Amino acid sequence: MDVEKTIEFILDQQAKFEAGLEELRQAQKKTEQGLNRLERLVEAYAQAGSNQMQLHRERMDRYEAERREQREEFRAFLKRFDDFLHRGTNGQ
């Protein structure tokens, strides 16, 4: 067995392994950067969605308050109208 060739083979394999390992490190770094960007985008979209939901809730609250006010005004009108009709039939 030729010791020098064996040592050369082992060193060559180790160099190839190290090169492959460096490629994996670079790929992992790129993947992490992409995931970080994706995470920021998801957070931004989630925040935008949350903001839209809050605006929607506020609009619905205003709408419901307006509807309650309109119902009360309509009930007050109906009461006045009913009072008017009853006064007219009772001669008052």
Low-confidence stretches: none
Q: Please tell me what the overall shape is.
A: rod-shaped
Order of helices and strands: H
How many strand segments? 0
As a percent range, the share of strand residues is under 5%
Rg, please? 39 Å
Q: Termini, distance in Å?
A: 129 Å
Q: How many helices?
A: 1
Quaternary organization: single chain
Major sheet attributes: none
- The averaged pLDDT comes out at 93
Topology:
Layout: H1 3-90
Could you please describe the fold and organization of this structure?
- The chain has a domain at 30-92.
- The chain is built from one helix and no strands.
- It has one helix spanning 3-90.
- The model has no long low-confidence stretch (mean pLDDT 93).
